[in-house]
Amino acid sequence: MMKIKILITLLICSVSAFAQSPKDKQAILDVLEKQRTEWNKGNLETFMQGYVKSDSLLFVGSSGPTYGWQKTLDNYKKTYSGKAGMGTLTFGIKKVDFLNQDVAFVLGSWHLKREKDEPQGYFTLLFKKLNGEWKIFVDHSS
């Protein structure tokens, strides 16, 4: 019986260790809002500041995986050329879950309103807290 009580206590402690403050969740939402705002200004370089600036950044889109911050930026520039190509971006955040104190999972939807079309889809993101800042290190968008 004592072993069961200890195990339950350890389980409760480990689950609560992943509970994050509302401040961390807000910081992640702030990164996404800044990305949305910068995208809508046509500023891809500032939009990319939400991502970890590293060769280990993984972006998975319709053409498969891309590694690296610069390569991801280059692909965005090719795919969404100019303000007309970028349109107006909106997000719908469905879920923010913390996997541990420094890693969070985000599920959301994206929608672009452009003159000729309105593409939309979903994304899953993994955020990591690096030097006190939340950055995206995995993005799977479809």
Shape: globular
The profile of the biggest β sheet is: 6 strands, mixed
Percentage of residues in strands: 35-45%
Mean pLDDT: 89
CATH class: Alpha Beta
Order of helices and strands: HHHEEHHEEEE
CATH architecture: Roll
Q: How many β strands by DSSP?
A: 6
How many domains make up the coordinates? 1
Termini separation comes to: 49 Å
Q: Which structural class should the secondary elements be placed in?
A: alpha+beta
Organism: Pedobacter psychrotolerans
InterPro entries: DUF4440 (IPR027843), NTF2-like_dom_sf (IPR032710)
Protein name: DUF4440 domain-containing protein
Pfam family, one: DUF4440
Give a concise summary.
With 142 residues, this protein is α+β, with helices and mostly antiparallel strands. Helix content is 39%, strand content 37%.
Describe what you observe in this structure.
It is built from 5 helices and 6 strands, in the order αααββααββββ. The chain has 142 residues and is of the alpha+beta class. It has a single domain, classed as Nuclear Transport Factor 2, Chain: A. A hairpin with a 2-residue loop joins strand 5 and strand 6. The model is unreliable at 1-17 (pLDDT under 50).
